[in-house]
Amino acid sequence: MQTSPPHLTRSTPIPDGYFDGAIKSICDIQSDNGAIPWFENGVYDPWNHLEAAMGLNICGAYNAADKAYHHLFKTQLEDGSWWGQLGSAVPIDETLHSFSRTSMDTGQLIRDTNFIAYCATACWHHWLIRGDIDFLKTAYRVVDKAIAFILPYQSEHGEFRWTADDPDTPENDALLTGNSSIHKSLGCAILIAETLGHERPDWLLAQTRLSQALTDKPERFDRTWASKERFSMDWYYPALSGALSEESARARLEEKWDIFVIPNVGVRCVSDEPWVTTAESAELILALCANDEMTRAEEHLQWLHQFRDERGAYWMGLQVEQNVFWPIECPPWTAGAVILATDAVCQLTKGSELFTPAT
User: What class is the 20-355 domain?
Assistant: First the structure.
């Protein structure tokens, strides 16, 4: 593992050029058309594309970020959605050879409601950093169509169906992590509308109903498939979403802290495997910042940077028992998540306001 940088806090400046390697790793993967796939010429989805683009904006790589946002706007379907390519799950086995790029190429085309809504979060983040009113006006039209697309997939109980009802995705069920992310995105969509002087009571109502589902209706998630509670994202994402009170969010994090957090390393992807993933570890930092747990967030940020490779990019994860980075991939969304977490703690840009308790 690489040596950690100087202790990073809100009062400690980031070393000059510290994220140059991470930014280069994103730009090297970015396609000429602006898309940021999982790996060079690989599968693509709008959520992970935007996570990387947000990292580019934080670090001032505006040309690459603008290409990414332009690609997103240009590829929105007429009905307001985007297609997203998802690969198969990445299992861990004893030999560490079960992951391959080929396996990720066999995924199905879906229209994930969370991925579609996430454009609002990324566009609000762009506004916080860049303050470009013309961009925000364009973004509002894109966000308006995206939210209009997902709203019919909200049930009378408040939760959102995981995908559009396409032939390849017949399962009518809801994901706790995805709905938590949608809650955050609806909040950002509302902020975009308010900034431009638009009233959107339909968006506010949808977010209120979703908040009620996330806080009081656990039975509305994982109704027809195996529970996802072994995934750490199902643990911390409700605390990151803004749907829970700060007291409830902190209690939720405490409840399974010792199950998912490996001290001095990071967050397990799943509770029953010795695999710490960098992006999940970064997102836990965001959840801590969102609930004013800044001491813990600063501590975890120090752990995060041990996942840097010699170029300054970030490995997907670490197999803890064997002490090897695995898979041998440095995805652009992982770099984006690390940069977002660092900004949230160190407040490098106004984009950090996205993860403050008031947002």
Answer: mainly alpha
